[in-house]
């Protein structure tokens, strides 16, 4: 029944694919590198919405260029707005930029004027357009400005959190497999889980290097959170698979290690796929409906979790067998 | 055995009741208004009183309800290490008071220390005008009391003296040249144009106007004019402090009559500005009467010196410097003085300061002379030295201010701002007024003098008044600014994040839509793939979702966009436990175990995987909460709560439901669970 699939026997195919993707990602990260956003470089982000048709991108860029604020990147946002990324602005400069853009397009400012109170205490603001003679209004939807001290702190804290999560996961894996010793010692289970984990995160980063290079997608705090969540989630998958292998080893003895591992993996495939499928379902919903600011956060999680499931099936367990065979040859 | 079965069954029934009670209760917490309407309806129809659910709403993050998050850095470089934390706390208090004036609901202000840096995190939910808030927060009204700078300016250097002398020699030469021309019969008006350096008059033929005896700089001019006739032009240079003048006299006129008067003040406890009260009001009145009875033109000065409580004039024999009628130093005495004949002493006049005995020595009418001049400016020390600040700071300032309030001067109706100092300020103010009796003391606001009163006497009550030309709103604003106080240390805005209410509402709608879509997709998947247990897991998922939301509400988890994302993610993960159990259950069934045994086995076997798998995500969450900024914490907190609740719901609720349902299906169980044909060993 379980011999329909032999993952262990065909392990070279995923090894090759993963190796290729991993090396390519490492090269991408080291050469092009991830594109850091204002969370890490410091700077300002201004999101504007136009109540009438928004101007063309060139016009918007021209308007920003007249402001004398150094280099600024203009990107379209939703259907009716723009996002402008600039250097760090103080509040006075912020107001000048707003005024400058409004003057350039001969537009008025304004706030969300109509606020609807729903039964659950949620307020919904509706931007007021013109009544008879539609006047262009430029509404400020979002403004973020991050000074150099904050951005360097965020950078440092991201590293700290990343390292702390890594250490905690390694310790956790070592603890989880403390009782298994034969025929593969517990630290090898742990190492394998960690290798799978690094594989997932590095390839996800590689994808974002490409996204950054070709589409200007920047790395922000949510991206770091996504990476750390993948660390936690990916190890979860691997642990479940290893758990099953461990159980099988106890029950079926250790003679046919490769066969036992294969059985364990194949038996957990429905579960592995189903759990990540449910998680991926909600993430896809988040990706499609969740709005701009959560878009790439969801994408990073989707890529990472899909990779995590793949690696726990096709990478971690076969690696375990490789370890075992290598150990046996030595003896 | 049978009895035990029945017991188990009734226990299970209670379990089911518990599950649904939990569901209803948590939904009640999430949607209190709908529930309370239902409760009210039941109350009306049955006359039973049922407690209502508190209508607390979800705490939404700034990115969902709109608002601003500001981070300031406190500049504590000039403050000793040990005082820094308390100084920053002081800043927080001041900012809190200022923000309270903005009408922001539930502002949140926290101080944080990052390395050596002190920071203030300010959250302003729902704020509309961030610009105004920032202006208000960074506002630094600096109130200072300054006294006259009496320190001698520095001496001129030898070079400067030499330069000054050279330039003065040139000026004198020029003035003499003009004088020669006057003597040679040149037109005075032409010479004004050619020589005069007085920019106020040289376009008007040097015409100054009528000079009285008290003109400070023009005093030498007045003296000359008093001894010459109309039309005379001075034949020597007249030197004043600022220039060499050639003067032409015009007509003359009577000036404003000046009154010479003296007084003896007897003040009492409770009178305004009474330095050392010795009397009650009645005693003071009696004492003043005594002094009046004793006083005559000859002994008045001596009596005043010994008895007057007006320390400023007492040393002068009670004498005021001559003043025009109607504008004496004590406005309350003006009418009494005007109605008194010269040479008379009048008896106790009451003012808010106490009782006065007044001697009106006489009235003089000064003569004023009309003059024009040609002025050649001299170079003085002050022209060379940088201007010396006429005011020097005292230690008294906004720091020692207890409160400021708007008061109306009962006499003039002018709006004033009254200041009450704390004990330290009271002492300082007393010292300052003691040092400066008869001298002006200036009240500076933000570096500008707003009031320069002259100290009449020592003030020991710690109460000062800023007079000035305020309108009522101006005075109120000033008092409010002073009350909120100056920031103890300067602050810099280092980060700002603001989200408009529109975008916030949009984000909220989008994330709710995403959540709903995710939930529905997961539920459909579970029902299609796992059939009966799938349906049960949908019920337990509903309990899970409502319990989690109720917990978020109950413990006040702030739901930001990241928080909702975390929760949505946890929904996907919550199903994980059910998937593990059901897969296990299927395997057990395939191995030919009975339905009941399979269920129990499935739960037991799956538990270690569920625990270990979720533990790793929980560890990550806790580290994220520990390290993270607000985005990270919102995400990690909801994800962690979600996972914890999901472990409970998967293990407890799904198990109760399964155990309860199994006996209903008997032989058909396997088909419902496995989608496989009915096996022959499905009975216990």
From TrEMBL, chain B:
Q: Which GO terms describe its molecular function?
A: peptidyl-prolyl cis-trans isomerase activity; protein-transporting ATPase activity
Q: Which GO terms describe its cellular component?
A: plasma membrane
Alphabetically, which GO biological process terms does the record hold? intracellular protein transmembrane transport; protein targeting; protein transport by the Sec complex
Q: How does it sit in the membrane?
A: Multi-pass membrane protein
Biological role stated in the UniProt entry: Part of the Sec protein translocase complex. Interacts with the SecYEG preprotein conducting channel. SecDF uses the proton motive force (PMF) to complete protein translocation after the ATP-dependent function of SecA.
As for family, the record states: Belongs to the SecD/SecF family. SecD subfamily.
Q: What is this protein called?
A: Protein translocase subunit SecD
